[in-house]
Amino acid sequence: MTKTIRLTMAQALTRFLARQMAEIDGKKMPIFGGVWAIFGHGNVAGVGEALYQVRDELPTFRAHNEQAMAHAAIAYAKANFRRRFMAATSSIGPGALNMVTAAALAHVNRLPVLFLPGDVFANRIPDPVLQQAEDFSDGTATVNDCFRPVSRYFDRITRPEQIIPALNRAMQVLTDPAECGPVTLALCQDVQAEAYDYPESFFAERVWTQRRPRPDRQELAAAVAALKGAKKPLVIAGGGVLYSQASGELAKLVQGAGIPVCETQGGKSSLPDDHPLNMAAVGVTGTSAANRLAEEADVVLAVGTRLQDFTTGSWALFKNSGRTIIGLNSQVFDAGKHWALPLVADAAEGLSELGAALKGWKAPVAWTDNAVKGKTAWQAEAGKVTASTNAAYPSDAQVIGAVQRAMGSGVTLLHAAGGLPGELHKLWQAGTPGSYHAEYGFSTMGYEIAGGLGVKMAKPDEEVVVMIGDGSYLMLNSEIATSVMLGLKLTIVLLDNRGYGCINRLQMATGGANFNNLLKDARHEVMPDIDFAAHAASLGAIAEKVSSIAGLETALAKAKDNSKTTMLVIDTDPLVSTDAGGHWWDVAVPEVSVRPQVNAARKKYEEAVGSRQG
């Protein structure tokens, strides 16, 4: 006879989560690093009480914003290379909807996170409850349906026993290298409190290991044949290299075959910046060393990348009309993009088998030597733009140079939206795998500080540096207070260009007038004069505004010895970006305008589109 234990659905949920383990580097540990929770009437009585009962096995963390706590959970998973992850629970209504943006971020970036929003009463007797959004034509609809298009798996728990198959499916998705992404289990608030006789076997400890599918023999043979026929091969390293911990296999392959490597935003740090074959960033925000090779390459081995438009220059970067793309990816959807030769496999396994099959073969020496010379030339250009300056308003690149000199390559550098991703992708010199943490798949303003908190939770002994613009800071900064509360030190560098400088530059580049981006160009009665340092200090951080690049370097050196989160603010120039490197990006310009600047930009746009060989 099956042994059972009577628990509420919420108690069964939390007990199950606490029993899930991961095996990492030969060590067993809980696969859930904890649960982020902001309680409300939709989850405090059920999930809240259940989390309290397992608080020693499954720690609960309190945040100040639902979107931010979900960002922290996602960053934790990314910093752990998807081997460990977290859950996030909210009440119904606005609490749940605040997490939808984060769910989309995780969905785009293929990152695991478990969302547990409260939901309406399954019995519907009290309808409409507080915060319930009623659909006049659909009695089953709730705001949590907004999670459906941005979840890899979605379920609504309307009976307590439904949590058994739902959690089994959730774990399969969260741990699968191909299907990995956000899971949403909407928890009806009455059902959270309902009891059921759950089989004890449901709570048996389970250890999840990383699945590593090996390539199909025919696909491998086709990829090897294409590479052996290449005169100008190139590797694009995406985030999948890091998630697979495949940096070692990548280095062996390219060193043995003499193939240059370039990196996407997600893949940057796959190889250390000083590796002679690492051409660094590719695409719209790429280096001249990488992009000139991409233009000529006849075979492109794309490893663990979605090949989005910033990587491909809106598919105008690869100018060799006879090129072949090999898509090495665990997800077939990504592996076959743009008629690529698919090589569906784990990145480490695929690179290992490619390396073995290519043993003894090398790319033409002239191609490899040309790549190395191009890297040297790029490094000289990068050194110029990141050099120290006495300018009253330094560029983003000069601030990056200061942070690099003061902090070195041993820190984990985190950033997200605005102008910084373009500059950091080109210019930051990453050290170890995972030391460069970019959220540029969804380019979410406000990810930075919350994401830094998640990274620090994953890497408590490492220095985490967050670079952020004033626009992103104003959108979401509350987790400074959480970092202080939890004793998790961040070093935050805030670049204040008084508006959305990146989009202002794009507006100008497409012929637009300076309008509604910089604060001075937005409708106002009084120009804002925000004391960011005072604001951060009010949240508990050590904060200082510096007046120069030299002052920033001095302050960063001091920050290393600070025991809690430190924020340094510096004014920057909103109009300056690095001219070297980069590539055209498809941003459609109006066909008709009364402004000659727009008409001129449209003409250039049509010329660029006409030359594309996508």
TrEMBL record:
Residues 220-354 form the Thiamine pyrophosphate enzyme central domain. Keywords: Hydrolase, Thiamine pyrophosphate. Residues 50-131 form the Thiamine pyrophosphate enzyme N-terminal TPP-binding domain. It is an enzyme of class 3 (hydrolase). This is 3D-(3,5/4)-trihydroxycyclohexane-1,2-dione acylhydrolase (Decyclizing). The keyword Protein biosynthesis does not apply. InterPro entries: DHS-like_NAD/FAD-binding_dom (IPR029035), Myo_inos_IolD (IPR030817), THDP-binding (IPR029061), Thiamin_PyroP_enz_cen_dom (IPR012000), Thiamin_PyroP_enz_TPP-bd_dom (IPR012001), TPP-bd_CS (IPR000399), TPP_enz (IPR045229), TPP_enzyme_TPP-bd (IPR011766). PANTHER family: 3D-(3,5_4)-TRIHYDROXYCYCLOHEXANE-1,2-DIONE HYDROLASE, THIAMINE PYROPHOSPHATE ENZYMES. It comes from Mesorhizobium onobrychidis. Residues 418-568 form the Thiamine pyrophosphate enzyme TPP-binding domain. Its EC number is 3.7.1.22. Belongs to the TPP enzyme family. GO terms for molecular function: 3D-(3,5/4)-trihydroxycyclohexane-1,2-dione hydrolase activity.
